[in-house]
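Hi support team,

I submitted a single chain yesterday and got back a structure, but I'm not sure I'm reading the token output correctly. Could someone confirm the output below corresponds to the sequence I sent? I've pasted both exactly as they appear in my results page.

Thanks,
R.
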Amino acid sequence: MNIQYMRRALHLAKKGEGYTNPNPLVGAVLVRNDRIIGEGYHEAYGANHAEINAMLHATEDVRGADLYVTLEPCSHYGKTPPCAQAILNKGIKRVIVAAADPNPLVSGSGIALLWENGVEVITGVLEDESRRLNEIFFKYITTGIPFCILKTAMSLDGKIATRTGDSQWITGESARKQVHLLRHRAACVMTGVGTVLSDDPLLTTRLPGKKGKDAVRVIVDSSARIPLDAKVLNPDSDAPTILAVTEKAKNKKIEELEQKGVKIIVTPLTESGVDLAFLMKKLGEEGLDSVLLEGGSKLNDSALRQGIVDKVNFFIAPIILGGGTAKTAVGGRGVDFLKDAFPLRNLRTKRIGGDMMIEGYVGTGEGTPCSQD
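Hi R., thanks for writing in. Yes, this is the structure output for that exact sequence:
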């Protein structure tokens, strides 16, 4: 066994980002006599799985070869036939798996099928890397709730705009490109009506040199205040727009929005407006596995308080804005005591152009030392 082949499989798996939702990202490499004879990845939802693509791209007969795969081969009929059976049919002698599939339809049965038919199986090779790559899939397939990433761009002193509201652009071009990659990978991009009223964003994906996938746009707007001519309601995009409202929204405005093709989700009314936990459940029922939250300070506060945020990506520019009335990344009333703070774990920092990105997971648990790229 050579761990570098699993690293290659993980690298291949990432090529599917943005195209496989709600399926996982999977890469596969076929090896014989310490040389690669075939490789592939899951390229799009409903398309061939990684193992099948590796077999199809093999330069020679794969019988007796080793297969490195980043996720347990499936054992059930879904959009495609089971990969575990295809492995048996092709006579592959050994399968090295990074992580078991949490899908209840698989959940160890793929590995068991291989073992029972004489195929040697090695598991847990670069498992942490595989689970991190598929953190969206792991949550969604086991809970039905989308994985939520809170993204914000701020100054070194935590401001997302000046005291006059000027906010474009706090971070540099490289950081903004990274945000568009996040949009490309996510099923939804969510913001509040306040951001729409102040910035009138498109919320589409713009990647240099290639066409990105536009995420479903979700606007949190308890009273349906959004203007009918807002750019987010009229983009040159096939991706739909969803408006999350409450009983405070007027029926006439809802009818006008629906006539424009906007899907309306009515949630219970909470102290802060839209019931975000209810909304996340509804988005999950729509088959949407992930949400990139690009909200203002009020929505960010509500999202943290209502417990929908799994991960944060804070882009920090090396500038200081100051101002007691300038908005911060998270607004609201704030916590009363330090013990009530929202903890982050498994922190990672990364330099992006002239800015810094801090990534972390929300909640308590065993943390790992901070890492820096």
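A quick pointer for reading it: The longest helix spans residues 173-185. Let us know if anything else looks off.

Best,
Support desk
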